[in-house]
Structure formats: structure tokens, C-alpha cells
Amino acid sequence: MIEKILTMILLKDTYGVCRLDKNELIPAWAQKGEFFSITKTTDELSIVCHEGNIPDNINCEKDWKILKIEGQLDFSLIGILSSISSILANKGISIFAVSTYDTDYILIKNKDIENAVKSLIEERYEIIQ
């Protein structure tokens, strides 16, 4: 039996990546749902959230699916995102990555998700859908 490298879960919902002005407050709509990520820098306020929550007047790119790396990842682990992004880059698939204290989330455009899942499975990644 071939051992799997890593397990990922394909989240069921579709998400958007939004860009707001760096001086805006974090909006309530961004904080709804099971997954959201908010990053503020000196240049912008960036929000990833369920696309159904995003108002029409917001600068965003919608139609992203998310692969969640299952389990807690130790900070000493090396090359996880590099390995995944290399596999997908070789197939012409762009990603947007979000990392938390415990794990990584890989955002992939909905139009590419089927090819991405197939490509990762071929490289011994387990994908739970």
C-alpha cells in the first residue's frame, strides 16, 4: 500500500478574497461563517471570507475553493507549502495561501479545483471531499 504524504480537506463553500483600504475597520460581514481570515498591513486590509457575505461594492475576487491541510502542523516542518505549490504550479494552477498557528489553507480557483485535486492525489496526497 502506498503511504499518503498528507491529508487535505476540501471545504464545501466558495470564498472571496477582498481588498479594503488600510484605514477601514474590519466589517461585520467579513466575520461570518466557519472560515474567514483577516490581515491588515501598512498597505491594505485583506479579507478572505464566504463569498455570499461580500457586499457588491467591495473590491474582491470571488470563486475560490479551499483545501485545508488536516491536523496541526509543527513549526519545524519544512517544505509543505512549497511541495504543494510546486505540484500545482507545474500544472499551471495558481494558489493563494493562508496560514494559521496550527495549519495551512490553500485557495484554488473553482475552475482549477478538479485538476488540482487530481494532481495532488497523483502525488500521494489524500483529499477528503
Automatic annotation (TrEMBL):
Domain named CASTOR ACT: residues: 60-120
Protein known as: Amino acid-binding protein
Annotated A9CJY8-like N-terminal domain residues: 13-56
InterPro entries found in the cross-reference section: A9CJY8-like_N, ACT-like_dom_sf, CASTOR_ACT_dom, CASTOR_mTORC1, UCP008459
Matching Pfam families: A9CJY8-like_N (PF21631), ACT_7 (PF13840)
Domain of life: Bacteria
